[in-house]
Write a structure and sequence with these properties.
Elements lengths: L16 E7 L5 H18 L4 E7 L5 E2 L5 E2 L3 E2 L8 E5 L10 H12 L3 E5 L2 H7 L7 E3 L2 H10 L4 E3 L3 E3 L3 E4 L4 H14 L1 H10 L20 H4 L1 H12 L7 H8 L3 H11 L4 H19 L4 H7 L5 H12 L3 H9 L18 H8 L24
Parallel strand pairs: 1-2, 1-6, 2-5, 6-7, 7-11, 8-9
Antiparallel strand pairs: 3-4, 10-11
Helix pairs in contact: 1-5, 1-6, 4-11, 5-6, 8-9, 11-14, 12-13
Length: 378
């Protein structure tokens, strides 16, 4: 069984299906490897070259991943290539990591009716090119708010991945492997897809209908389903926060039970946790969008920019304006991030330095995310 996915014609039946991976500066290596490896294994199991692939960069130079490792590409987007599928691979600081030439090239690929895909934060690049307008799109939860605010014509969702006839997008981590397995199943049937999964010691192939786990509560879903349900309700109701009594009712427990669950498993009260959820979203908006403080305050359920700034400074330890300054100011050499063994920073320290503009930088504070008094829900 072989069914094509995408609007491709004029390709000889015996010619490999040609895939191009556009590496955006600071791309995540895990997203690239988990997208490429299913193609390699498909060829191995089939005993023939079903797929060929090339790694591309803007100018043909080395591509640097977010962990500091550099990749030698197979070519440049300035050269002539023929692809059936092009996948954008991006990672940290995506709004400032791609070029106008890359956007123009992707538009050119679209005019040629090439199937376009993106992994991790790569959908942001496709959206910037206007190539996701009217399309359903999955993306890593860290850049979802930026896409929703910046590209209202894109139909963002919270699914692990979305595979259609013209676009295929997914979240990050190991999910690209599952998207590619789904893609291969559509083209060759599930037998090959399952065989690849078995070779990768993958216990199951995840479905595109599955929701990506949002931060802070994925491990609680099985052990404490009511707590996870309450946390999900909080994350789904940020602009207009729900009162705790209503939250408990919707979760099917009493308010006292709700408070006990949060204190026992999260080390904080429900209102404190809810506040942190709202402020984490505010942090992502501050770092990834140009929305005003007033607009962000409203989008995160605060009655005024003043109240928002006060809460943010108290819980996050700094004023919102400094968070934004960090995001839009080039990172200078920091003596606190210096390798003690050499005058040149190691790859790990370089990667850490580049990550300082990311919304999740320095957010892991342990169980309960700190303590302190509740700052209110308004």
């Amino acid at each position: 069984m072989t069914t094509d996915t995408g609007a491709h014609t004029n390709r000889p039946a015996q010619q490999p299906y040609r895939v191009g991976f556009l590496l955006i500066e600071n791309f995540t290596l895990i997203a690239l490897s988990t997208a490429v490896e299913p193609l390699r294994m498909a060829n191995q199991l089939a005993g023939s070259e079903l797929y060929s692939w090339k790694l591309l960069t803007d100018g043909g130079g080395y591509a640097r991943a977010s962990d500091g490792i550099t990749m030698v590409p197979d070519g440049s987007i300035q050269e002539e290539h023929r692809f059936d599928l092009v996948i954008v691979v991006a990672g940290i600081d995506v709004p400032r990591s791609f070029s106008c030439r890359e956007v123009r090239w992707l538009k050119q690929m679209d005019r040629r009716h090439v199937l376009l895909g993106a992994v991790c934060t790569g959908p942001y690049v496709l959206a910037s090119a206007g190539l996701l307008d009217g399309h359903s799109c999955s993306a890593h939860w860290e850049c979802l708010e930026a896409m929703q605010e910046g590209f209202p014509r894109v139909q963002t969702n919270n699914r692990l991945f979305t595979v259609g006839r013209e676009r295929m997008t997914c979240t990050g981590g190991t999910v690209p492997m599952h998207m590619m397995l789904s893609f291969l199943a559509r083209r060759h049937g599930k037998e090959l897809s399952n065989a690849i999964s078995h070779m990768f010691v993958c216990d199951r192939v995840r479905e595109d209908s599955e929701q990506q786990p949002m931060p802070m509560h994925p491990r609680l879903a099985c052990a404490q389903p009511k707590l996870a349900e309450a946390a999900q309700l909080m994350e789904a109701n940020i602009e207009e926060p729900i009162e705790l009594q209503e939250l408990a009712t919707l979760a099917g427990i009493s308010r006292r039970q709700l408070e006990r669950l949060f204190l026992k498993h999260m080390g904080c009260t429900p209102s404190r946790y809810y506040l942190r959820v709202r402020l984490n979203r505010a942090r992502r908006l501050l770092k990834q969008t140009s929305c005003s403080l007033v607009a962000i305050a409203s989008m995160c359920g605060f009655v005024s920019a003043t109240h928002f700034s006060r809460c943010y400074r108290k819980v996050m330890g700094r004023a919102p304006k400094y968070e934004r300054m960090d995001a839009y100011t080039p990172v200078a050499t920091d003596t606190s991030l210096t390798d003690t063994q050499t005058s040149l920073p190691s790859s790990s320290l370089q990667a850490l330095r580049r990550a300082r503009t990311e919304p999740t930088y320095g957010t892991f504070l342990g169980r309960g995310h700190g303590s302190g008094e509740d700052t209110g829900s308004g």
